[in-house]
Design a protein that fits this description.
Blueprint: E1 4-8, H1 15-24, E2 38-47, H2 50-60, H3 72-86, E3 98-106, E4 115-127, E5 131-142, E6 145-157, H4 160-166, E7 181-188, H5 190-200, H6 210-215, H7 225-234, E8 246-251, E9 259-268, E10 271-278, E11 284-291
Parallel strand pairs: 1-2
Antiparallel strand pairs: 2-4, 3-6, 3-8, 4-5, 5-6, 7-9, 8-11, 9-10, 10-11
Helix pairs in contact: 1-3, 2-5
Amino acid sequence: MTGHLQLELAKLPSIWASYPRVVLVRRPPITEVTDPPEITASVPGVMLDADAAALYAQMCGFGASATLPVTFPHVLAMPLHLKIFGNGTFPLRPMGLIHLSNVIESLGGLTAGSRVDITVAARNYQRTDAGLAFDMATEISSAGRPLWRETCVFLSRWPEDMLRQGGGRPPRPPKAPKDSAVLAELDVSLRTAWAYARVAADYNPIHLSDRAARFLGLRGSIGHGMWSLARSLAQAPVPVIPHGVRIETQFLTPVQLPARVAIKEWRAEGQVKRALCDVRTGRVHMVAWWSDVTPA
C-alpha cells in the first residue's frame, strides 16, 4: 500500500462518529504492513473555543489565564487524529498505540475566539525493534501563517512472541538528578484519566480500563502522556517559554494507575527540564525540555 490520501473537511468531525470506526475497522496484522500511505486531514475556520480551553486548563492545573495553554491545540486537533485513525487505509490498530515522544513549537497568535485552519498528517513510518513507529504531525495556521506545530511519535508494538525473540531487557529509565527541585507531589488515578479524557476527547481504553489495557498487552491502565506533559508545564512556577522555542518530550515509562508522582525541575546543558517521576523509585515517566532563556 503506497500513496497519499487527502481528507479535506468542511468542519471538525464528531469524535463519537469516528470512535466506532477507530475501534471496529479491521486492520491487517502489523507484520504484514508494508509501505503504508500518508494520510492528511485538514479543516479550515475552526473556532478556538474559550470555554473548552478553560475546562482543559482547569483540569490540567493551569488555572485562569487569558493565555491558551501551550498544549491545548493538541486537543483541538484530536478529532482529526481520530478521523485518520478511523479511516480504512490507516493500517495500524489505534487502540493499542503508545505515545513515545512529542515536539511542540508555539509560534504565537493563538487566542480564544479566533478561527484557525488545522492540518494533521500520519506519515514517516519506521520499523524499530519494538514495533512500527510513525509521526502524527499537526500544523495550526491562520491566513497561511503557521501559529503552532506538533509532531507526536506513536508506536504499534510487534506481537509478544517477536518481542521475546528479540532477547534482552529494555534499559531502565533514568532518574532525575539528586539536586533537582521537587515542585509538587500528586496522586494519579483512573478518576484523573477519565477527567482528562473528557476535556481532551482521548478515550483510548488503555487509559480508562485495567481489563482493556491488559487485553492490549499492558499490565493495567496507564495515565495519558499528554496529561503528564500538560500537568508538569502547569505546575508553579509556570515556566515562561517564548514563542518559537521547541518543547521536546520523551515518554519513557507508563504511569501505572493508581500512582503517586512528583514533578521535578532542573537545568542542564542550556536547557530547562521538567519531569514526572515515580515518588517511590524516582524513575522518570516523562521528561520535557526547552532552551533556557532565563536572563543572566
